[in-house]
Specification:
Chain lengths: ~170, ~170
């Protein structure tokens, strides 16, 4: 009996948390959800892009699920991965963490050679949007950006993950 | 004697060429740095802009200019003291560090087209950052208007009067 009650309460708790999580991310109605692009340009892989689209739950015309696409070079999407909208807060947190405290290089920083490896994050969510460039020259910020790439990669299915290199 | 003169002449030509190459190298290393802001009015019909550009010169100190563009596309460019660029860049640095998405738990707000956009580009640092903030995000808006007003204050009259002070 006690076990049944515990199971019941645990289920209610999980359901409540699920709904709460889904409500947490409420992008402005101005946008059809939120969009993030992570574009990697490096010598080892060429150009690769992860496109992330989070649905706008208040817009009936918006898709119910979120989507992560992966493309390499000029080819179209090689992966189209759909995810439950309840994952949106976690994905927003991944991008927020990568961009939090973003600093431009200090005045007098050593110039970089042309065609240096870089990761460009474009984010458009709620009231803010922006492009942010990351290079290995700033190791701390580079690590944050590549961690975001790897965390998004980790949300893919195993077969899809194999196509996206870990950074 | 003639051989010595020829040797000295060749050496001086080589040194001159090397010096020119070095200068050209410096120019390529530090082509330009631009910090600009654009303000778009709420109905989205017009925008104003302020921009500070730093450019290395083949000879002499770098050239720094300030450009102001009014809502009716009138534009005035003035020379600025080279010392202004470091504080401007540092202010832009401080601003990007504040970038954030609005708190997901906040109730949605009706927003219009009014926004402030900062663009920073520095090609030798492989850098371009562009971010947009809106009045509905008070902390970001306050930081953006402070930067805008500081840039505006750097512009000598009559250019300064072409754009509004923002609050």
């Amino acid at each position: 009996m006690n076990c049944t009650r515990l199971l019941f309460f645990a289920t209610i708790l999980l359901l409540t948390r699920g709904v709460h999580g889904a409500e947490l991310f409420e992008p402005s109605s101005r946008y059809a959800g939120a969009v993030f692009n992570l574009q990697l340009e490096d010598k080892a892989h060429g150009r690769m892009t992860l496109y992330v689209h989070l649905p706008n739950r208040r817009d009936p015309s918006s898709p119910k699920d979120g989507e992560i696409n992966f493309a390499q070079g000029n080819a179209g999407s090689q992966i189209r991965h759909h995810f439950d909208a309840r994952q949106s807060p976690a994905i927003l947190a991944i991008i927020s963490t990568a961009l939090s405290g973003y600093l431009l290089p200090a005045v007098g920083s050593t110039p970089l050679p042309p065609h240096v490896d870089r990761l460009i994050i474009f984010a458009d969510a709620g009231l803010a949007s922006g492009y942010f460039y990351f290079t290995p020259a700033d190791q701390k910020q580079w690590n944050k950006a590549t961690a975001a790439w790897n965390a998004l990669r980790a949300t893919l299915l195993p077969d899809e993950m194999k196509q996206v290199p870990a950074l | 004697m003639w051989k010595r003169l020829l040797l000295l002449g060749s050496l001086s030509v080589l040194l001159a060429l090397s010096s020119a190459a070095q200068m050209l190298g410096n120019l390529n290393d530090y082509p330009s740095l631009g910090v600009s802001m654009h303000y778009q009015v709420p109905d989205g019909t017009t925008n104003e802009g302020v921009q500070v550009d730093w450019k290395a010169q083949a000879q002499g100190p770098p050239k720094v200019t300030g450009t102001v563009q009014s809502s009716n596309h009138q534009s005035i460019t003035s020379d600025l003291p080279p010392t202004v660029i470091a504080p401007v860049f540092n202010q832009a640095r401080n601003f990007t560090a504040l970038f954030h998405f609005t708190s997901p738990g906040e109730p949605p707000k009706k927003i219009d087209n009014e926004h402030l956009m900062l663009t920073v580009s520095h090609s030798s640092l492989q850098l371009q950052v562009q971010l947009t903030v809106r009045r509905a995000d008070p902390a970001a808006w306050r930081a953006a208007t402070t930067l805008w007003n500081n840039l505006r204050a750097l512009m000598p009259p009559p250019g300064r009067e072409l754009v509004h002070e923002l609050h």
